[in-house]
Amino acid sequence: MTEPDRFASVRYLVDDVRAAVDFYTTHLGFTLNTDAAPAFADVVRGPLRLLLSGPTSSGARATVGVADTPGGNRIHLIVADLDAEIARLRDAGLSFLNEVVAGPGGRQILLSDPAGNLVELFQPAE
């Protein structure tokens, strides 16, 4: 069990826990914390604990009718070099949902996990 004051946890509903674990650990630097696939797993990156709840998990059943599909919320991952991350992930066969968006705070781009949950890669402005 994780310590509640050590991590901030976010739950993503996924249709394939194994595919989600592979996505986050292979491409985005998360490490596997708990593996109870196919129902549930959680992965950790820094202070973020990402709960990956499959269709048979209690977390997914608790939201039936409210969140049957992934929503517009997203996790926000800070990267040092956005262009290098984009190139690395494209070389791995991933595609992005948009082009890079720049604003006063920095630059960002979106991709989705295998279930369609959004991940924002963000490089802060200098």
From TrEMBL:
InterPro entries: Glyas_Bleomycin-R_OHBP_Dase, Glyas_Fos-R_dOase_dom, MMCE/EMCE_epimerase, VOC_core
The entry's keywords: Metal-binding
GO annotation, biological process: L-methylmalonyl-CoA metabolic process
Organism (species): Actinokineospora alba
Organism superkingdom: Bacteria
Protein name, UniProt field: VOC domain-containing protein
Molecular function in Gene Ontology: metal ion binding; methylmalonyl-CoA epimerase activity
Domain annotation VOC: ranges: 6-124
